[in-house]
Structures are given as C-alpha cells and as structure tokens.
C-alpha cells in the first residue's frame, strides 16, 4: 500500500513517528511524508520515504486563511493517491480530513494534544470546535493520547465514540532509550526540562520554582533544553530567557538532536505543562529511568504514579512545583534510584511503542480492508 503521513513539520515526523515509518517500510509499504520542508525532510528521504512539501503555518490561527489549506491538501492527496492517510496535529486533522473526503481517501487521525484552542476559550476556539465537529465526521479512526482528551471530544460532540481509541502517545522505543549502565547521582543535583520555551509548557512556573529552590540550596542546577519559539503570543521572548539565565535561575542549553545524552546527565526530568497529549519527553525520561515531576493535568498525569516514579504538582503553581522538586532532591540515593527504576518499569509495561505500532496496523487494515502486515 501507499501510506501518507501528514504533519505540520517534517521535524515532527522524524522525531516522533520514525519508528512507525520504519515499521511500515519494513512491512513493504510505500511511505510518503507530506509536510512543510525543513532540515529533517532529507532525513526522511534517507530513511526510505518519499517526500512531498506542503507549506503551512503551524501556529496560524486565522480560520479563513487556513481554509485555503483545503485546496493544498486536496492537490497533494490527488497527486500522491495514497491508499490511506495518517494525519497528526490540528491543521492536517481538520483541513486534511475535509480534503481527503473530497478525494475519497480514508484517513486515520491522531489528536496529539489539544493545544491553545482548548486552553484559552475565545472566538478562535469556538470556530475550531465547529471545524472539528464537521471534519471529524470523515476519518475511519481517531486516536487520542489520553482518556481526558477523548472524553472532552465526546462531551462536546466533536466525534463519534465508535471510531475513537486511546493510545499512549507515540510510544517509546524501550530498546533505544535505556537507563545508564550504573546509577549515579549528580553533584550538584540537576533538574532538566525538555520543551520549547512556551508559556503553556509551564516555563514561567519552572523559573519561579527555581528561585524558591535556589534560595535554600543555591547549588542546584535548573536546566532547559529546547527551542525558543517567539511566534504568536504563546512563545516566551529570547530576551526573557536570556535574562533568567544571566540572573542564575535557569541554564539554557539550546537545542540538541541527542536529547538522550543530555537527559542521562540529569537527576530528575520536569514538565509543568498546562495540558498535553502524552509528552514524548516524559516517555523518554521514564524509559531512561528518571524520576519525573509534572502537572496533574491530562496527558502529563498519565506518565506518573504519584510517589512511585515521581510527583504530580498543581498546574500554574510555582510554589507547589518547587515543593515537589524539593521532595525529589531530598531523596536518598537509594530512594532516588528506586524511583527511577519504577519509571523504567512503567515505560515497559504501559508506553512501549510496539503497542502503538500494532494499533496503527490494525487501524490501517480496518480503514482500507487490506492486509497491512507481511506485505510483499
């Protein structure tokens, strides 16, 4: 079969969906990546994909302008002629679903997080709800990354329950992401947040927690790894991130294509996000046997059993975040190691990517009526 994967960035496919791509290719399918062209597009081609560029603004929130995307998607889908289309992120999910319906091609959508339109209710979010309600009549399957997101879509009558299913995010390759051969506590202690510098990721609260912790234990290291994204009103300005770094509240590490090597040097991974699908960075942390501190919100709370492999904190509460981070810092070496081992156990039992890949193969067979595995 020819299978198209459509996302708002080639980077997203390469970093979060590559295992699925490889599994599809290994089963004998032709995989076509449809996304805006970036530095990762060529890497997808090197993996064996075909690549079709489709420009789109990942952050734009003008529905009238975005409606023009339907034509772009339709042209791409009619040109590629895939047997089935796997769609991720808001714009492919909405406008791509309409285009696929017009082209007569079945789709499988993945709601990988609800984003700003569900966190902030305004005119744009109301329009987005209406668009979801219309476009989600068409997919053969809609995957959600946590049960809260699915429940919200059902409550607002945005999708039929019969086509929905919950899977653990993109899953995690527990063979690739392994704990260090030997446990080692860092001196000084290191907290790491892996995220773009966005308000909704809880970076402001992370800095507030840093100030509280460093007032008691100034030697603690509080790090951020991730891109600065100044688009729209959701990104934190580079000047503010640099100011926090200069004042000593935050070590900004920039970006890296090897997150695992940075994570190995951390004692605890923190993500104080306001809402997520299932955060890939926390799945990586769990697989690498790191204790986790995250918010008690949909998506994040699925990665932590409170007190077992980390702690859950209140959302938008820097003081509570500091208290939970301090609780990890105060653990003995043995207790810190045990909490990390519990994270690894959770990754193996709940988040292994094999489960996600199996559900995609089953969904492809259901959408197309064709066998998806053992294709010659």
Automatic annotation (TrEMBL):
One protein family per Pfam = Glyco_trans_4_2
Read off the InterPro entries from this record: Glyco_trans_1 (IPR001296), Glyco_trans_4-like_N (IPR028098)
Q: Which residues form the Glycosyl transferase family domain?
A: 180-344
Q: Which keywords accompany this UniProt record?
A: Transferase
Q: Does the keyword Transferase apply?
A: yes
GO molecular function annotations of the record: glycosyltransferase activity
**Superkingdom, according to UniProt?**
Bacteria
| Domain called Glycosyltransferase subfamily 4-like N-terminal: residue spans | 3-146
Protein name as it appears in the record: Glycosyltransferase family 1 protein
């Amino acid at each position: 079969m020819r299978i198209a994967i459509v996302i708002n960035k080639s980077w997203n496919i390469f970093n979060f969906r590559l295992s699925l791509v490889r599994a599809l290719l290994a089963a004998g399918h032709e995989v076509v990546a449809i996304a805006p062209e970036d530095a990762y597009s060529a890497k997808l081609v090197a993996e064996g994909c075909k690549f079709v560029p489709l420009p789109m603004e990942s952050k734009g929130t003008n529905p009238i302008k975005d409606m023009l995307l339907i034509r772009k998607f339709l042209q791409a889908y009619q040109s590629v002629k895939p047997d089935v289309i796997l769609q991720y992120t808001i714009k492919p999910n909405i406008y791509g679903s309409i285009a696929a319906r017009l082209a007569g091609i079945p789709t499988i959508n993945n709601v990988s997080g609800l984003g700003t339109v569900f966190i902030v209710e305004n005119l744009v979010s109301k329009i987005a709800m209406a668009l979801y309600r219309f476009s989600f009549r068409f997919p053969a399957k809609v995957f959600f990354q946590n049960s809260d997101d699915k429940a919200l879509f059902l409550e607002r009558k945005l999708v039929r329950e019969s086509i929905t299913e919950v899977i653990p995010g993109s899953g995690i390759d527990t063979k690739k992401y392994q704990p260090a051969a030997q446990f080692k506590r860092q001196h000084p202690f290191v907290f790491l947040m892996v995220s773009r510098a966005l308000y909704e990721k809880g970076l402001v609260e992370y800095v507030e927690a840093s100030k509280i912790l460093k007032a008691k234990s100034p030697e603690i290291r509080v790090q951020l790894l991730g891109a600065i994204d100044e688009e729209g009103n959701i990104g934190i300005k580079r000047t503010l991130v640099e100011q926090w770094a200069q004042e000593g509240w935050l070590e900004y590490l920039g970006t890296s294509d090897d997150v695992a090597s940075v994570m190995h040097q951390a004692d605890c991974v923190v993500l104080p996000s306001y809402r997520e699908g299932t955060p890939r960075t926390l799945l990586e942390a769990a697989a690498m046997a790191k204790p986790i501190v995250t918010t008690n919100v949909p998506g994040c709370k699925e990665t932590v059993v409170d007190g077992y492999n980390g702690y859950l904190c209140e959302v938008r509460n820097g003081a509570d975040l500091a208290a939970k981070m301090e609780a990890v810092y105060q653990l003995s070496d043995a207790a810190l190691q045990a909490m990390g081992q519990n994270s690894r156990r959770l990754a193996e039992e709940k988040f292994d990517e094999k489960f996600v890949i199996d559900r995609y193969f089953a969904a492809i067979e259901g959408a197309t009526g064709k066998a998806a595995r053992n294709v010659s």
